[in-house]
Amino acid sequence: MRTLSRAGAEQRRALADMLEVAGELVTVEVIPILPDEIQKRVDRSRRFRRYAVLAQRRASREWRLAARELYASGMSMRDVATVLGVSHQRISQLVAP
Predict the structure, then answer these.
(1) C-alpha distances in angstroms, 37 versus 7, 28, 31, 32, 44?
(2) What pLDDT does 1 receive?
(3) CB-hemisphere CA count at 13 Å for 48?
(4) pLDDT tens figures, 30-70
(5) Could you count the other beta carbons within 10 Å of the beta carbon of residue 70?
(6) Complete DSSP assignment for 37-67
(7) What spatial distance separates the first Cα and last Cα of the chain, rounded to whole Å?
(8) For the whole model, what pTM was predicted?
(9) Region 8-36 average pLDDT
């Protein structure tokens, strides 16, 4: 049974044999053709995953800045931890330079 994960290697070997060249000289790109509705869903899911990664980075940055600002304002690490809902050890990591 052939799978997409093996299709490129199989086609590369076949083309190399047919052309009588080394397999390393042949490049094959497998591009699956999906029904339109499924392709749209795949594209949306990829876009949402990129957005999620960016949102996570922004949330982490804001969380770290909030911890640093709270601590710099005079709050103890334990109080900052209580406000942010994490351990004081985690706050210690977040406020470290």
Answers:
(1) 24, 26, 17, 14, 11
(2) 47
(3) 6
(4) 889 999 999 999 999 999 999 999 999 999 999 999 999 99
(5) 20
(6) HHHHHHHHHHHHHHHHHHHHHHHHHHHHHHH
(7) 55
(8) 0.61
(9) 89
Q: Give the residue from 4, 50, 49 showing the smallest Cα distance to 28.
A: 4
Tokens of 32: 């699956």
Identify residue 72 by its one-letter amino acid code.
A
Per the CB < 8 A criterion, the answer to whether 75 and 83 are in contact is yes
Length of the chain: 97
Q: Which residues of 10-27 are buried (b: 16+ CB within 10 A; e: fewer)?
A: eebeeebeeeeeeeeebe
